[in-house]
Known about the structure:
This protein is 33% helix and 24% strand. It is an alpha+beta fold. It folds into 3 domains: 16-38 and 92-216, no CATH class; 43-85, no CATH class; 221-317, no CATH class. Strands 1, 5, 6, 7, 8, 9 and 10 form a 7-stranded antiparallel sheet that branches. The chain has a 3-stranded antiparallel sheet with strand order 2-3-4, with no helix packed on it. It is elongated, with a radius of gyration of 22 Å. It starts with 15 loop residues before the first helix and ends with a helix. Residues 1-11 have low confidence and may be disordered.
Amino acid sequence: MPFVKTGFPTRETDAAWSVSGKDISGCADLKSMLQTAGLDWTVGVVPAFLQVDKVSGTYVEAPNCLFTVREDLSPMDTGRVLGHVSSSFSPAQNEATLSLFVGIDGLTCRRAGTFSQGRQIWCVAHLAADAPRDSPEDMFGYLILRNGHHGNGSLEISFALLVEDTQTIVSLPVAAAPRQVRLRHTHSMVDRRVSIKTILVAARKYLSANLRLLTKLDGMSLSDKRLTAILLEMFPPRSPTRRADGVAINTRVLVHDLFLNSSRRTAYDLWHGVCWFLDHYEMTSRAVNADSRMVCSLWGYKAVSRARLGAQMLKLLK
């Protein structure tokens, strides 16, 4: 689908978060959400054992060494072992994790799924908020929940501002409002539930700040000279980048063409084009499916690029 306002061309690929996982927006309750998303299983913690005598086959329990396992799988099934954890690790079960987003006014779960056979689970929820009348396009706030059962990282909730028509994240880095919060696995679910109210306040602060900045960018026209300077700073000259399928792509030329196809050619149109490129073009072989593309876009190298390029865009407002 082309951009309605800017007239950008049809996207190269579907945004990862629009095709990864399962659609749970039509589920009536938490149980049906878990079943639809394939998350209706629990995580157990089992001790690790060390072999001390190969001849006799004697094993002893390893101190402070445990494994998390999927309890819906038998001991010999591939994917049963999720990770190695310490004795202080307390798994946040899938049902309890998704329940953080259920029953909250203004919060609607859209999609959910797993990464790496259950080592991580995720859920995307729409946050109802009133956008300013003069906002550049129809934008909506989203909360992205990610929880690891593998022992690395914490329960994390990120905030994102999404242009609905193009499925493009246009969030800018806002120093006064962090884009994500983390909840430790050692916290009880009661503590996490209480924290959700605080998290929603932080999310609305972050999204409101972004809307104000994007509205300012939408009011800034760019001359050809200024545009060229910005693009050279964002994408310095180097050898052509190759897409995952081997096709050579000049990123700067591509983003420049997207900008020229926009209707008003403002600084916001440039930023939208940059984000569209990040979300819909895959430039490496690391992201071979929708799940890996989603990880790259939201938490991986593309998220780093978005923050770096966004910081350069913010220089225009100074």
